[in-house]
Each structure stands twice: as C-alpha cells, then as structure tokens.
Amino acid sequence: xxxxxxxxxxxxxxxxxxxxxxxxxxxxxxxxxxxxxxxxxxxxxxxxxxxxxxxxxxxxxxxxxxxxxxxxxxxxxxxxxxxxxxxxxxxxxxxxxxxxxxxxxxxxxxxxxxxxxxxxxxxxxxxxxxxxxxxxxxxxxxxxxxxxxxxxxxxxxxxxxxxxxxxxxxxxxxxxxxxxxxxxxxxxxxxxxxxxxxxxxxxxxxxxxxxxxxxxxxxxxxxxxxxxxxxxxxxxxxxxxxxxxxxxxxxxxxxxxxxxxxxxxxxxxxxxxxxxxxxxxxxxxxxxxxxxxxxxxxxxxxxxxxxxxxxxxxxxxxxxxxxxxxxxxxxxxxxxxxxxxxxxxxxxxxxxxxxxxxxx
Length: 360
Prior knowledge:
Blueprint: H1 2-37, E1 42-49, E2 52-59, E3 75-76, H2 80-94, H3 124-128, H4 165-179, H5 183-195, E4 238-239, H6 241-253, H7 259-262, E5 286-288, E6 293-297, E7 300-308, E8 313-319, E9 324-330, H8 339-347, H9 354-359
Antiparallel strand pairs: 1-2, 1-9, 3-4, 5-6, 6-7, 7-8, 8-9
Helix pairs in contact: 1-8, 2-4, 2-5
C-alpha cells in the first residue's frame, strides 16, 4: 500500500512540474501563430506571477535571414524609456533633489523655450502626467535641426492631457543639470545597476553589435539598426524583455522608493482627458499617474505603457494587487496589433482597456 501511495505521490509531483512547461509550450505555439498572422518577424515576452517567470524568444531578428531572436537580443524600447526616466525622477525626489511641483525652469533654463513665458510654470509633475502643454515633438528628433528648433507650447500648462516626448527631454535635461550627470550615468546609478539590468542602455554599446535586432516596416521588410549615440529619454532606450521585466516588477513592488512616492505610480494624477478631444467623454477606465498609465481592467487595477519607434513596438501591463506583469518587445511596425490577443492568452478573457484607449 505504501508503495502505491508513493507511486501516486511521485506521479502527482511529476504532473505538477510538467504542467507549467506544457502550458508554456501551448502559449509559445499560440504566440508563434499570432506573429505569423500579424506579420511580426520577432518578439521577446516575459510574464511574471507570484515570483515565477515564463520567458519567450520567438521569430527572427531580421526577416529573410537565419538570425533568430534570443533572450539576449537587444530591442529598441522606444517610449518605454520614459517610464525609466519617471522612476529616476521619483528616486531623486526621495533624495530631496527634485521638488515635483517646483517649476523646472527654477532648476534649468531651456533655450528652446525662450519665447514661451508660460513655460515657466511647467513642473516635473506636469511632465510625468503629460499635462505640460508641450507637443510630442517640435520636429523629428532624429534630425540634427531638432536640437535647436523652437519649442512652442501647444496647450496651456496643466490644462489637459497631451502626450509629450519634448516634456520628457525637458525633464531629462533638468535632472542632468541638477545632478551634473548625463542621463546614461544617472540611469546606471539609479536604475540599471540596482535592478540588475545589465543589458540596458540609453546609448549604443559595442556589445550590442552581436545581438541587436533590426526593425521592420508593416510589410515585413527590414529597416535598420539605430545606434543611438546620444541618450534621449523619449526613445533611445535599448534593452531586453528580461531586463525591462525586472524594472516593471520594481514598479509594482515600489522597490527603491519611499512608500508615499511609490503610491504616485498607482494613484490617478489626472483623468487623461485629451486636449485634442475637448468635447469627448473622458474614458472612466483610464487615468494617468506619475509616468505610467492606469487602467481599470476585469483583472483589477493595472499600470501600463507602450513603446513605438515606428519599426519597433512594445508594451507592458502590471497588476500591483497581485504583482503580476507582462512585458513584450517586437521588431515590427505591426507589433501592437497583437496586444489584446496576448493579454487574453496570459490573463484570460476580459477587458484590459489600455490598447483600445490607445487606438482612439
């Protein structure tokens, strides 16, 4: 009898250990089919729940070649770099170096804003919550002329929600001035090193030559590898899904922040009422916190953000109540098309809101 009990126990334990692996293989097959359907050459995805992590590296780093995506493949994180800057700013706030409601021009005067007297009221809070009134970009930030282009307010500061890369560059320059350190060194000190993000950088590293992914247009054609030589919080972060997942887990746990500061990532600062749609009804399921979007989902309250460099797109969502998170990067202009299907696959049927709001 004891033998049979031991046998059944061993069989049960074997089943328990094999079940996650079987589920992982099933999800991998569905992800592979989804990439093919939406013409996305490659992706990395990391899903974490209760301390357990599933990692997927699928497809090709360059279409038409044998260069496969691995866990070490470097992707452009695009606007997901803004969230890293937001966390850095909150860390400096905790150190007493940055007052979130003090005008940024009291710290640093931006020459591009010299004709904009109203810009003197812009604060870190406004930048982090996208209410600075600045445009997304005054010009294409990849063009040399952008650095000296006139930066004009599009809306009155603190009046409505308008997504702004320029705002985050303004905050970046302010933090660099306050600390005397360039963004790359500051991020290394406050984020990358403490969180073990060894494969993350706002500027190109020679080590990336081995594993960097190409971008792809919406017809699945390779574009280029951008070797960013200057750090830009708005778009130049290079990283892996494994690294960025560590960062997202730090966000949901409030790691490295005072408890009151960590709450700024979870509590609505504004209702994300878009300036461009003043007559529209505010979405009751979406709000904005300090550097991240908030969504009321069928799985509970969530933090979220997306990244879009045109030929690279990524996304994350995280649930503070359960410390569950999902991060994915793609090397395709079609990358965000898979978002809702991916969320349904890992979190089950339901309403996750964020991607639908983003598409409005």
